[in-house]
Amino acid sequence: MESFGKIVLFFIGFGGFIFMSCTSSGSDADATGVFEATEVLVSAEADGRILRFDIMEGDELKAGQEVGCIDTVQLALSRRQLLETRNAADWKRYDVVKQMSALRRQIEQAEQDVERSRHLFQKNAATKKQRDDAEAQLAVLRREYDAQRSTLENANNSVDHEQQALTLQVMQLDDRLEKCRLRSPISGRVLAKYAEAGELTGTGKPLFKVADTRNLFLRAYVDAPLLTRIKVGQSVQIYADYGTSGRKSYDGKVVWISDQAEFTPKTIQTRDERAHLVYAVKIAVNNYDGMIKLGMYGEVDFLLSGSLEYSVKQ
């Protein structure tokens, strides 16, 4: 009986230890939530066959990094044709100086004839009609010169406008060719891949999804009493829950507070807690070490760390 009593006392003490351990491990955080990221769904901007698509789910990409391309043969041929047409337009251009040289020489000769006739008229060696005829001939040549020069310049201007229009068409094709190159719009991790090399794609068809996993957000929910002590721009302390590995703290900053109350999301365990009205809050956190994963649970301390300055760790 004495041994049996000792065994009972042992189990009672051990159970009390377990109970105290569980209750003492509870978190005093003001709110909990899930880590989210800015996700971008990249879609095709051209029609054709995907010739190359060099990404895998989980790959890290840099902003602007080329990851594939769509067939550009027809666009390249159209661009080459436009360039040839633009170059051929140069053959329609007139050399105004050369075209007008002969008429200019006639004007110079007519000016000399006018001077000669005026000189002879002053000496009574020529009649007034001869002088007037020489001046009239000069006037006709000058008007003809102006008319022909205007015609040639207008023709050249027409060539210029034609080439400008062709240049714009070439620029449009260049833009379409550039859109055939598949690039990542942001730096981040590939979450999903929806197409493969060799498949046909079209404008607007999703190709892959990328998320910025460095600059994350913790979406938490707070009740009305706590909301009165939170403001946008406030520095807070974030704790990432690593499960059995413990948790790690990060500096965070409140960047958005919902202006409408909502029921607690259904991910909350009990029905009573889900029936409470809460406000959504987004907190920016720099995942500088890459340890925080999307969907991981996190905790936030608004009150104890409200005076901390927010710093971004590089």
Summarize the structure.
The chain has helices spanning 2-24, 73-89, 96-122, 128-179, 224-227, 271-274; strands at residues 31-43, 48-53, 60-61, 66-70, 181-183, 188-193, 200-201, 206-222, 235-241, 247-257, 262-263, 277-286, 297-301.
Please describe what this structure looks like.
With 314 residues, the chain is of the alpha+beta class. It has two domains: 28-66 and 194-301, Beta Barrel (Elongation Factor Tu (Ef-tu), domain 3), CATH 2.40.30; 74-179. Helices cover 40% and strands 28% of the residues. The chain contains six helices and 13 strands. The chain has helices spanning 2-24, 73-89, 96-122, 128-179, 224-227, 271-274; strands at residues 31-43, 48-53, 60-61, 66-70, 181-183, 188-193, 200-201, 206-222, 235-241, 247-257, 262-263, 277-286, 297-301. It has a six-stranded antiparallel β-barrel. Strand 9 and strand 10 form a beta hairpin. The longest helix is centred in the middle third of the chain and has 52 residues, at 128-179. The model is unreliable at 1-26 and 304-314 (pLDDT under 50).
